Amino acid sequence: MAPGQAVAYVTDAAPHAENRAKILRLAQKADQLFIEAVFLERDRPLALASHHLTAWDAGAIAREAGVRHVTPFHHSARYLSEPDVLREELFESFDAADRAAMTG
User: Residue 91: in which H helix or E strand, if any?
Assistant: First the structure.
């Protein structure tokens, strides 16, 4: 890391509006965001019940915060047989606005 770079770290965050606002303030324009991506969006009920973010939530938050780099971590063991799905979903969400701008 070079002088002046900002790193943000988010884990064990329930996916509700108040937490989202706090995370956005914390991570605003960070050079690097490490953020939990515990469940896939298809398993949102599990995320809500266990107070964790989905990979889609994590990517959308990173995009909205305007971070330069995002690294997902803290994954549910239920995806061990699909080792890349959480990362893929996060980056699909993180890049969603770019794709919309290119096709829109």
Answer: helix 85-94
